[in-house]
TrEMBL record:
Superkingdom, taxonomy of origin: Eukaryota
Protein name: Uncharacterized protein
Organism: Lentinula boryana
Amino acid sequence: MAYDTSSGQLAVIHHAESIHRFVIDGGMIPCVVKSIKIVKHWPQAVAFGQVSARGPELWTFGQEDGVIIRGHTILNMKDDAIIFDDIAQGVALFKMAGSERVKIFEVPHKERRSRNVAFHDGTSTIISGSDHGNVYAFDRHMGDVIDMIYVGVKDWVQSILTIEASGVPLLFVGQLGENVGKTEIQMWEKVNVKSTTNKISSKSVWEDSR
């Protein structure tokens, strides 16, 4: 799902090739604006784009394009960037203008499982889950792993969410797999710590906030 606060519109997709667009009225009741079905599209993600005379654009991303089998998808209109969970490799970074693939951020894996992806610090950092209990943070421009979080169990980390609350970067992590029903949502906070080298005085790392 995706929600556009400026227009009060809600977009909903499901994997049966259908895309639904609603407007939320004053009574918080969704009213259908349009519903369409795109054959062999199988939408995996949806997002609102730039606002035109007819309202906000609506972007949907199908399961595959012949090259990438997609999972979760995030886009940032301001920085002209889209990231896809490419379940065969890692995270694929594209430019929206011209659909140019910029880089692949490889995530180690044993099985082809979908993972949520996210931007952090604007779009300077890319974050991805994994199938083995790690969350990876990549430098978008260099492609290097700049941080790695172990959630405490070697299991499928599918769900991640990045937000900023009162100026503090937060990362929420959820897992799936054999421990379903026994897991908790973990919250990690980004903090500054003193560096062990003389090159810089401090660096930012993720710290468990439980």
